[in-house]
Amino acid sequence: MLLIFFSSSKLLARARRSCSKCVTCEKCHETFTYCMSREAFGEDKSVFSNTREVAWRKAEQNAEEIVQRMLQEESDPIPCPSCGWVQEEMIRSVRRRSYTGLKNLGNAFLLFIAGVFALTVLYLFLLVFSYKWENNALYGACEFVGVCTAILGTPYLLLWLLRWGLNSLYNPNTKFVGQNSESHPHQK
Ligand SMILES: [Zn+2]
Questions:
Q1: What is the distance in A from the centroid of ligand 1 to the CA of 5?
Q2: Distance, CA of 16 to CA of 12 (rounded, Å)
Q3: Contact, 77 vs 94, CB < 8 A?
Q4: Keywords in UniProt for this one (predicted)?
Q5: Is 75 part of any domain?
Q6: Ligand 1 centre from 171 Cα, in Å?
Q7: Which domain holds residue 143?
Q8: 107 and 93, same structural domain?
Q9: 93 and 106 together in one domain
Q10: How far is the CA of 163 from the centre of ligand 1 (A)?
Q11: If you measure from the C-alpha of residue 176 to the centroid of ligand 1, how many angstroms do you get, rounded to a whole number?
């Protein structure tokens, strides 16, 4: 199903798709299938679109690309009907989609570090081209970048560790007791 609507004057297309996933259990080697659904929002990312219809089409296409990528790359944590094991890839898929706020915040610190590095290189170039280069300029620049990396890299590292720790807590196989278990692991 594909819906198109305006959200606070921004054109958004919504795509909902389902697919059937075939899995061979890594524990008991039985094969099973499950149905997975995903929803994605797409927008017209081009700088300019001639008409609203063209913008709609681009937004539709964007939503379709996103939802297809989700269906292809993601998995749901469905326990094997035969033994109850939740496949490692399913767990990794859930973890990749979890605590994305922490991940984005961490990446923002990385961007700041990249920005500091780029500005320092620019500063050094300006020194060279304005004939104000001094012998200790490079040493000073390295020292500045090093201090900024340490200051900005610490929160990045802490956020990365926090996300890793929180993600480690999610393991539906902790209750796995073996073949044909009656108590299947908790399903998200
Ligand atoms: Zn199994």
A1: 43
A2: 13
A3: yes
A4: Membrane, Transmembrane, Transmembrane helix
A5: yes
A6: 16
A7: 100-167
A8: no
A9: no
A10: 29
A11: 11
